[in-house]
Specification:
Structural class of chain A: alpha+beta
Shape of chain A: globular
Number of strands of chain A: 20
Oligomer: homodimer
Distance between the termini of chain A: 25 Å
Largest interface: A-B, 89 and 89 residues
Number of helices of chain A: 17
CATH architecture of the largest domain in chain A: 2-Layer Sandwich
Number of domains of chain A: 4
C-alpha cells in the first residue's frame, strides 16, 4: 500500500471511532489548531481528532501506532512554549471534549476530573464545600487540567501551595501502545517508581492523560494583600529574602520594577506609586489571627528593608485593585513598545539583587529597555525586553541579550525556564542547562514510554546534534553517545 | 579470562581506588552487611566497598559495569523491606562514609548534604538558624538522607509536611555508566522530565545518590499534642475524617486501638486510658494564636465524634510523655506475643472505619489478635498480627490473613505499601497492586537507566513471571508482553 493510501486508511479507521463532527480534516477547520499560545510558531496539522471518551483515545492511539502517525496532544491551546504546535504529518489529539467533573470528594479533599476540565471550573465545583484547587496559571479561565499536568503549570499561589505536580494525586494515562495505566490515586504515598511525577511536565511526550485526581485545599479564613514600594531594586530584593529567610511563605509574592509599574499604572489605574524603583505585592492567607500576626511581621520586615510606602488591602475589592495592575502588566508593556521578548528563568532568591543589577547593565549595553514583572518569592523571573522589530538589528540584539540573561540564570545556580515549559521555544536553552548525559537520560525515559517516537515528536528535549551545533554541549567521553535519538 | 579471574581483577581495581579499610572481603567483616532492618532475609555479599568521594563511586561503578558485577547500594542499613539485602555475587556499595554537611543556606532555606548524613543531623545543623528538616522516620537517629531518598521515607510529621519526595529539591546521582547527573537544585521548578521525583523511592535501582539538597522549614512557634480517647473505633475514625474534612491538617495524627494501647501503656506508662477502644494522638503546630484556635476547633470536632477523654499537653515534657507510648508501641506489642507480622498498607481516610471493622472480622475468623498502630491522618495502616510461630499453622494463618488485609486495602482504593518501600518484602503484593502494563512501564524505566540490570537487581519490581505464578496478574493482550525482563 502506498504511504498515501495507508494514511487514508488510518483516517477512515479513526473516523469510524468518532462522531462525525469530532474529526476535522478541512483547511478552515484545521486553522484554529495551527498553533497554541505561542502564536509565532505555526504548522498546519494533518488532521484533528476530538475524542469524547478514554475508549476513543485508546482506539486512536492504536490506529496511529499501526500507521506510524505522530500524535500531538492538545488541551485548551493556551500553552506559551509551543508544546501543542502541530506536526504537518501528525494528528492533533484534542482533549477539550472530555470535560466532565467525575467526582468531588470533600471528606478526602480530592476531585476526579476528565482532562478537559478548565482549571477555574475545579475551584468553582469545590466551592460549595469550602474547598479550592490551588495552582492558578494566569490563563486559569481557559486552560484545562490535562494541559496543566502536561506543562506542570505554575501561578501566583504556587509559592505557598506548590506547582501542579504538588497538587496532583493521580492520573490515568494511555500509552502509545494503547495501554491504560493508573498512576497514583486519592492517596498520599503509593508504591513503585514515581511515574506520576514524570507525567507532570512531560509535555505530551509520554502518554495521553485521560483522568486527573487533584488535591483540594480549604479556602483560607482571611486574606490580606500588601503593596510595598522601594526606592531601589536592591531593597526590594532584600525584603524578599528577609521574608522567606524568616520562614514566612506568603501565598504569593510578586515584584515589578519601575518601567513595569509605570506601564501597568497607566493601563490599569491600580494606585501604584509611579516613582518607586520597585514594588512588591505580597498576599498573606490563613486564620484571621495568624494573618494579622503575619501582616505585622511582614510590615516590620519590609520597613527594615527601607520600604517607603505600604498599602494594605483587607477587603476583596481593594485586593482586586492591587492585583489588577500586576495581572495586566504584560498587555500594559505591549502598549509602550512595538514588541517585547518575554523571558522565563528561575534563580535562587538570594541572587535577585545581583541578577536584576546585571540585567540593568545588559540593558544599557544593548540600548534596550527591560521591564521586570515576576514571581519574586520563588525566584521565577519574567524580564520583558522591549524592542522594535522594524529597527534593523533590534530583534537580534534582544535575542542575544535574552540569551545572556538565561546564561546568567544558570551561572548563579538557576534554570533557563520556570513555569512555561520547554515546548519548541526553549529547546536551545535546554542545551545550556543540561549536559549530554542528562539529555540522554531524558531521551532514554522518553524511549521507554514511546519506543516509536510518535508522541509529540520534536518537543521538550533537544537532540544532541542540535546542542552540538549550538556549541553549548558537553560531549560525553569524547563522543555523542546515543546515536539513535535523532529520530525523536 | 575465567569468571573467577575476572572477579579477582575487578576486586584489585576497586581496591586501587579505595583506602585499605574501605574494601571489606573477609567473612567476619562482611557479616554486619548480610541484611538491613528486615533481618529475616539475609545473604552474604561478595564484597563491601565504602567510598569516601563521588570520584570513588564513579570509579567503582565503571569497574562493576566492565566486569558485570551487580551493585547493591546501602545507606545506614535501617530499611524495613530488604532494599539493601546483598546479592551473593554482588558488591555492597555503602555510602555511610560520605557523611559531610556541605552547606546550610538559611536565606534560601536549603541544605546540601552528602548521602550518608543522618536524618536527625540535618535538623541539628539547621537548628541555629531556627530551621529543621521535616520528614522524620522513626529511625531518624540512625537512618541517612541517601537512604531516605531511595525509600521515599515517611514519618509522623509527613501528614502535614510531605514525604521525602516533597522535601528534596535536588540530587546528584551517578548512573551505572559512571556518568554524573544533576537533577533539580536549590530551586522550586526545574525544566525537563521530573527525573528527581523518580529517584525518590527508586530503591537504588536507577543510580547512586552522591549529594542531596533538601528544603528546611522554620521551627513552629508553638506545638500542642492532644490525646483523645473513644469508646468505639468507628468514633475515632469519624474524628479523623471530620478533622481533615474541615481542612485542618495536623502536624501528625496517629491512631492506636485497645490492644496496642494496653501493650504500650504497660511498657511505657504514658498515661493512656486503658479501657479506650481507640485513641488519637494529634499534634498541632504553627503560630501561638493559630495553634490555640486549632486546638479549640479540634477539641470541638473530637467531642462531636464522642471522645470521652481529652488530654492536651502544651509543655515539651508532657508532649514527650504522650508520644512515648506511641513510639514504643512496636516493642511493646513484641512483649505480649511471641511473634507479630507488621503490615504496611494505605487506604483513603474515609475507609478507616470500614477497614478496621473488616480487620476485626478477619481477626475473629483466624483466631489471631491484631493490634492497630498507625498514621491515621494519611490513612497509612500498620496492623500487627499477633501469632506464635511455634504453634503449627499460625504463621501460615497470619500470612494468609495479612494477604487478605492488603487485598482489602487495594479493593477500597488503597495501596499495598505505605512508607517502608517494596524491597524484597513486598514483591508479591506489587502483583496485586499493578497490572502487566504498569509493571512493564516500571521495567522500561529501570532499563532506560540501567540497561545491564546491575543496580540492585531483584528489588522493587516483581517480574511478570512471578506475578503470573501467583495468579494475581492481569495478562496483557493475552500474553506476557515483555519477555526480556526476567534478567533484572
Amino acid at each position: 500500500m502506498t504511504q498515501q493510501n495507508k494514511r487514508r486508511q488510518a483516517l477512515e479507521l479513526i473516523r469510524a471511532n468518532l462522531a462525525d463532527e469530532n474529526l476535522i480534516t478541512d483547511t478552515a477547520g484545521l486553522r484554529p489548531y495551527e498553533c497554541d499560545g505561542l502564536t509565532a510558531i505555526r504548522e498546519m496539522p494533518w488532521a484533528v481528532a476530538l475524542p469524547q471518551s478514554e475508549a476513543q483515545v485508546i482506539a486512536i492511539l492504536r490506529i496511529c501506532k499501526e500507521h506510524h502517525i505522530p500524535v500531538v496532544p492538545r488541551g485548551a491551546g493556551t500553552g506559551l512554549s509551543g508544546g501543542a504546535r502541530p506536526n504537518q504529518d501528525g494528528l492533533v489529539l484534542g482533549l477539550s471534549k472530555m470535560d466532565r467533573i467525575i467526582e468531588v470528594d470533600p471528606l478526602n479533599c480530592v476531585a476526579r476530573l476528565q482532562p478537559g476540565v478548565r482549571n477555574l471550573a475545579i475551584s468553582e465545583a469545590a466551592s460549595e464545600f469550602g474547598l479550592y484547587y490551588a495552582p492558578d496559571p494566569s490563563s486559569q479561565i481557559a486552560c484545562s487540567i490535562g494541559g496543566n499536568v502536561a506543562e506542570n503549570s505554575g501561578g501566583v499561589h504556587c509559592l505557598k501551595y506548590g506547582l501542579t505536580v504538588h497538587n496532583v494525586l493521580g492520573v490515568r494515562v494511555v500509552t502509545s501502545d494503547g495501554d491504560t495505566l493508573e498512576l497514583g490515586g486519592a492517596l498520599y504515598d503509593t508504591p513503585g517508581l514515581d511515574l506520576l511525577a514524570v507525567l507532570n511536565g512531560s509535555e505530551g511526550m509520554l502518554g495521553i492523560i485521560t483522568e486527573v485526581t487533584v488535591a483540594l485545599l480549604p479556602k483560607p479564613e482571611q486574606v490580606v494583600v500588601m503593596l510595598a514600594a522601594f526606592h531601589t531594586i536592591e531593597d526590594a530584593g532584600k525584603a524578599v529574602t528577609n521574608i522567606i529567610g524568616q520562614g514566612i511563605i506568603p501565598a504569593g509574592m510578586e515584584m515589578m520594577d519601575q518601567l513595569a509599574i509605570q506601564a501597568a499604572e497607566q493601563f490599569a489605574h491600580a494606585g501604584y506609586p509611579q516613582n518607586a524603583a520597585a514594588i512588591l505585592l505580597i498576599e498573606l492567607d490563613g486564620g484571621a489571627q495568624e494573618v494579622e500576626n503575619l501582616c505585622r511581621q511582614v510590615e516590620r520586615l519590609v520597613q527594615a528593608s527601607n520600604a517607603y510606602h505600604i498599602d494594605t488591602a483587607t477587603d476583596e475589592k481593594e485586593q482586586m485593585r492591587l492585583w489588577k495592575g500586576r495581572k495586566s502588566a504584560f498587555p500594559a508593556v505591549g502598549r509602550i513598545s512595538p514588541d517585547y521578548y518575554c523571558m522565563d528563568g528561575t534563580i535562587p532568591r538570594r541572587q535577585i539583587t545581583h541578577v536584576l543589577a546585571s540585567i540593568e547593565e545588559f540593558s544599557k549595553e544593548y540600548g534596550l529597555r527591560v521591564a521586570n514583572v515576576f514571581h519574586a518569592g520563588d525566584g521565577n523571573l519574567h524580564p520583558l525586553i522591549l524592542f522594535d522589530a522594524n529597527q534593523p538589528g533590534e530583534l537580534a540584539a534582544a535575542e542575544e541579550m535574552g540569551g545572556r540573561i538565561l546564561e546568567l540564570c544558570v551561572a548563579v545556580g538557576g534554570t533557563v525556564t520556570g513555569e512555561h515549559g520547554v515546548g519548541v521555544e526553549k529547546l536551545n536553552q535546554m542545551c545550556v542547562q543540561f549536559n549530554a548525559s542528562e539529555l540522554e537520560q531524558f531521551f532514554a525515559l522518553k524511549h521507554a514510554w514511546d519506543p516509536h517516537g510518535l508522541l509529540n515528536p520534536g518537543k521538550g528535549i533537544p537532540t544532541l546534534t542540535r546542542c552540538g551545533e549550538l556549541g553549548g554541549m558537553h560531549v560525553r567521553h569524547g563522543e555523542i553517545a546515543f546515536p539513535d535519538i535523532e529520530r525523536f
